[in-house]
Design goal:
The protein is α/β, with parallel strands linked by helices. It folds into two domains: about 110 residues, 2-Layer Sandwich (Nucleotidyltransferase, domain 5); about 80 residues, ATPase, nucleotide binding domain (Nucleotidyltransferase, domain 5). The protein is about 30% helix and about 30% strand. The chain contains six helices and ten strands; from the N terminus they run βββαβαβαβββαβαβα. The strands form two sheets. A five-stranded mixed sheet has the order 3-2-1-4-5, sandwiched between helices. It has a five-stranded mixed sheet with strand order 8-7-6-9-10. Strand 7 and strand 8 form a beta hairpin. The longest helix has 18 residues. The model has no long low-confidence stretch (mean pLDDT about 95).
Length: about 230
């Protein structure tokens, strides 16, 4: 059985899967409360499935980009469990998870997160000939610059989409395809599906060196020297 953990943004999600079947899943609006909510929700998930931590044989964690606090909580919890249980761990890009749930449509998919300072974090993915491809790596840009690079119908997804919905539709018109809020909700079961492929291939991460994808350093000021 595998455990998937995603605390990258205000939306948090955990899932238990076995043999490609979702045993249990919880997705909720955590805001900035990942520290106090993740472990109780994980305990509730295990209780619902009538399982315990020792049943877990692998861990899949969303590694960002996302909020600094959320990623720190999710990845440190996943690494702690991997160390204590002696099981493999796999880190998956959160933008990839966001895009993957729309893979079957077959169009280019552009997941977007708010990066602050008027910028966004984005990437591009597409399923082609039944293979999942990353067309553009995770990067920082602006909504305007991103629109100028779109040349075909593209699915835009992510928690930040409602904020720039009108801009995307105005700039791209029929090229901008935007899922509804319900169909665009990022869920840990999709994270698990991506991670299972790596676990089955033996493509593990080292829990000691697995790091979040931040794209930008935290906004911490340096102390002034006297």
């Amino acid at each position: 059985m595998q455990l998937a953990i995603d605390t990258s943004t205000d939306t948090a999600s955990v899932a238990l899967v076995q043999d490609n079947e979702v045993l249990a899943e919880l997705t909720w609006r955590s805001g900035q409360n990942h520290t106090v909510e993740l472990l109780p929700q994980l305990a509730h998930l295990l209780n619902q499935a009538k399982l315990n931590l020792q049943s877990i044989s692998g861990i899949i964690v969303a590694k960002g980009p996302g909020s600094f606090n959320g990623l720190r909580v999710g990845i440190s919890t996943a690494k702690g469990l991997a160390f204590s249980l002696g099981i493999p761990i796999v880190g998956i890009s959160t933008l990839e998870v966001e895009a993957y749930q729309h893979a079957e449509i077959g169009l280019p998919i552009c997941p977007i997160f708010n990066a602050g300072r008027g910028e966004i974090a984005a990437a591009m993915y597409q399923r082609q000939d039944n293979e999942w491809h990353q067309l553009a790596t995770e990067h920082i840009t602006t909504a305007e610059a991103l629109c100028s690079q779109i040349t075909t119908k593209t699915i835009f997804c992510g928690e930040f989409i409602p904020i720039i919905d009108s801009l995307l539709r105005k700039q791209l018109k029929e090229w901008a395809l935007i899922p509804t809020a319900a169909s665009g909700l990022r869920r840990a079961s999709f994270l698990a599906e991506l991670g299972l492929k790596q676990l089955k291939a033996g493509d593990y991460n080292n829990p000691a060196t697995l790091q979040p994808i931040y794209l930008r350093r935290p906004p911490i000021t340096q102390p002034k020297h006297r």
